Each structure stands twice: as C-alpha cells, then as structure tokens.
Amino acid sequence: MGAALALIGTVLGGIVAGRAAVKANRVTAQSAERVAEQNAAAERARVESEAFSRAREIYDHAITELREELERVRTQYERTQEQLDKISEKLLTERSSSQEVRDQLHQAQREMHEMSSRIEYMERVIAHLRKQIITAGLDPAEHIIHRGGAP
Known about the structure:
By secondary structure, this protein is mainly alpha-helical. It is built from two helices and no strands. α1 (about 1-95) runs antiparallel to α2 (about 100-135). The model has no long low-confidence stretch (mean pLDDT about 85).
C-alpha cells in the first residue's frame, strides 16, 4: 500500500508539474505575442512616418517647381506688359491705323490674358497643395508668394 501511495503522490506531483508547465508555456506565448504586436505596431508607425515624410518632400518639391514657374511667368508677364506699353505709345505717337501694330497689340493682349490665367491657376494650385500639407498636420516649407512678390 505504501508503494501505491508513493505512486499516487508521484502521479499527483506530475499532474501539478504538468499544469505548471502548461501555464508557464501559455504565459511565455502570451508575452511573445505581445512583443510581436508591439514590434508590428512600431514597424507600422515607422512606415507611416516615412510615408508622411516622403509625401511632404513631394509636396514641397511640387510647390517649389510651381513657384519657379510662377516667377518665370511673372517675369515674362512684366516684359510683355512693357512691350504692350511701348506698342500702345507707338500707336498713340504715330496715330497710325497700321494693321501690323494693331495685330501686335492684340497678340500682346492675348498673351497677357493667357499669362494672367496661368498665374491665377498656379496660385490656386499652390494654395491647394499648402492646404493639403496643413490638413495633414505639417508645416509648409515656404510661405505663399502673393502677386507682386510679397510673402
């Protein structure tokens, strides 16, 4: 009977040890799962951060390119305005009904209108891109340049 009690004690000890091992394995698995979830969350945050950073670079580059084009168009606009003024003066001075001068004047006026439309369009695009950057919670890299070059 002593051997049976010893055997029962050993079996009960084995059961208790087995349950403890299962519980320890479960705790270890849960810890590993939490670590994996934390690592995945950190990786997602890193990828999102890189995506936002790249998007900002793209927007900033687009704004810079548009600003440069806007300045080129403004310079051309000013030159054309000077040309238009000279042509108008020539017309007044000569009081000529020369078709060539009228054609030049109309051409310059058409160019002025087209450039004015392009300037307005680019200003709207720049404002829209800046609004998107601000909506994304980022600070724009530059200030909007208003007509006349003042920030």
